[in-house]
Specification:
alpha/beta; Rossmann fold; 2 domains; three-stranded parallel β-sheet; 7 helices; about 20% strand; globular
Length: about 280
């Protein structure tokens, strides 16, 4: 019997949602719904210094406005524990420059302080992206799993959370494609079945940088204030996902575009990035 599909929408409440978030979350919603699956909402608020409850509230409102309704909201990351049981790890006192220029020898020193790093099994990791096909990447070398202050880092938290929450498919931005290798190594050492993967195009602002809260004109609340409707958002983003509207029946992973696309201050999406002077992708 096939396992029912479970997707997740996982915003980080350190900044308001923008078109790049809408693209990734829309793809996650479409993918799960196309498989008659469930959609979970998980607030990824590990960074206590930047996470804001009012931003999380605004993100929920933006998602509802977009039509991305979820079946359940699971516990936020700030309320969860992330044990290292079963994971080969060592404590490290090195700074980034030390590791870069002198190399790290902490693995053999058994420190009782410092960050916990993943003693990553070496070698290429192979997996299939549902849009891009077969992929091969080397995992990050000994990434931090738990910071020196005891706060779990993203590579550890996302793997444990997706396993706990029963997530069967991960849909996210293409900037995280290579990070899949490290996460698969964690699934491997923990003996867990990994989800499937689908990475959507990366959207960049007029300055060429990946969309973020610094590109205020592309925030959903700014577009809404400028008169945009949710339908208008999907008219602009739909061609990147191979759909004409937020309709799951029309979603096919192989139709999702690959690459990077430029977003103008007006919110129009141009692309691909290397041909950013071309006509808008939509509207």
């Amino acid at each position: 019997m096939a396992v029912p599909a479970v997707g997740r929408i996982a915003p980080t409440p350190s900044g308001h949602l923008h078109l790049g978030n809408a693209l990734a979350f829309g793809a996650a919603w479409l993918s799960a719904r196309a498989a008659s699956g469930r959609v979970l909402l998980r607030i990824e608020d590990l960074d206590a210094g930047r996470a804001r409850a009012d931003v999380a509230t605004g993100q929920r409102e933006d998602l509802e406005w977009l039509g991305l309704h979820w079946d359940a909201e699971v516990a936020p990351q700030s309320t969860r524990q992330y044990p290292l049981d079963g994971i080969p790890a060592f404590r490290c006192l090195c700074t980034r420059p030390t590791r870069l220029y002198l190399g790290c020898r902490c693995r053999a020193k058994e420190h009782d302080k410092g960050a916990w790093r993943f003693d990553t099994p070496r070698g290429l990791v192979e997996f299939v992206d549902r849009t891009r096909g077969p992929q091969r990447f080397s995992p990050d070398e000994d990434p931090i799993l738990v910071r020196a202050d005891g706060e779990a880092a993203y590579p550890l938290a996302v793997v444990i959370d997706d396993h706990r929450d029963g997530v069967t498919e991960v849909v996210r931005g293409g900037d995280l494609l290579a990070a899949t290798a490290t996460q698969l190594r964690l699934y491997e050492v923990l003996g867990w079945t990994p989800p499937t993967w689908l990475h959507v195009p990366v959207l960049r602002g007029p300055d060429g940088k990946k969309l973020s809260k610094s590109h205020g004109s592309t925030e959903l609340r700014a577009l809404r204030a400028a008169g945009w409707t949710a339908e208008r958002v999907w008219e602009v983003l739909g061609p990147l996902l191979g759909v004409e509207s937020l309709e799951p029946a029309g979603f096919r992973p192989e139709r999702v575009r690959i690459g990077e696309f430029l977003v103008a201050d007006s919110g129009a999406v141009f692309g691909p990035l290397e041909a950013s002077a071309a006509a808008p992708v939509a509207g």
